[in-house]
Design a protein that fits this description.
Helices cover about 70% and strands about 5% of the residues. By secondary structure, it is mainly α.
């Protein structure tokens, strides 16, 4: 859960400083915001050193070799099949989104950390960014009027236009909505299950249920590692697919 403090081992809760309100917006950081900063910094530092390593040698070594597998996967299995020749334009965005979500998901599995990707405000913001990239991609490759004209299927009877235009406009917003809810629900679901399993020990007030609860909790925790990978992939895949649909309207 989000909060105004960070739990530290052997220290307790470290309360975050309160900042003034500007234009009605409270700028006081929360636990999820702090871990977003940490993840953003980790992503930046990681790929800074990877890029620096490529300047010295074209053959990847150690850390670069490990992350190159993911980079090539996003390029060859996500971006190029869904975007075609336009994939190079959007590949930096897709890679940034993929690794930010991936690092955030794995950060939430560490003790005393927080899963900010289980916060609907965070996933909604990521989805809004994807929404703007979808519109920018469609307008850039089809023109402003051409893109919105292409939302209506070719050969549509005129009498259906009053019905189809609102449906297509609504469809523009259901895509980011699906992205936000899917990531949020999947990331919070595993934590709720683990909490419920551990809570059985206290709810039933007996130590005899502890071995079973802990065993199932560990199993769900290991499953969460797989979910962290899959959800980063799905969010990136769907974002790329939606951008591809906007870019290549003729298909």
């Amino acid at each position: 859960m989000d909060g105004d403090g960070i739990e530290l081992p052997f220290i307790g809760t470290l309360h975050l400083p309160e900042l003034p309100t500007v234009f009605g917006i409270d700028l006081t950081p929360t636990k999820h915001i702090v871990f977003m900063w940490i993840v953003a910094l980790l992503v930046f530092i990681t790929f800074y050193f990877i890029a620096k390593g490529y300047k010295k040698s074209v053959i990847p070594k150690r850390l670069a070799n490990f992350f190159e597998v993911f980079i090539i996967f996003v390029r060859d299995e996500i971006a190029e099949p869904t975007l075609g020749k336009a994939y190079k334009t959007f590949l930096p965005f897709l890679l940034t989104m993929f690794f930010f979500i991936l690092f955030g998901n794995f950060m939430g599995l560490l003790p005393f950390s927080a899963t900010f990707t289980s916060n609907i405000a965070v996933t909604a913001t990521l989805a809004i960014i994807s929404f703007f990239m979808i519109q920018i991609g469609g307008i850039k490759h089809n023109g402003f009027f051409g893109y919105f004209k292409g939302l209506i299927p070719h050969g549509m009877p005129m009498w259906l236009l009053p019905l189809m235009i609102p449906v297509e406009i609504l469809g523009l917003f259901t895509k980011p909505f699906a992205l936000a809810i899917r990531l949020f629900a999947n990331m919070i679901a595993g934590h709720i299950v683990i909490l419920a399993l551990i809570g059985l020990i206290f709810f039933m007030a007996t130590p005899y249920v502890a071995p079973v609860s802990i065993a199932f909790a560990v199993f769900i925790y290991l499953l969460e590692i797989l979910v962290a990978l899959i959800q980063a992939y799905i969010f990136t895949m769907l974002s790329s697919l939606f951008i591809g649909m906007a870019v290549h309207q003729e298909h």
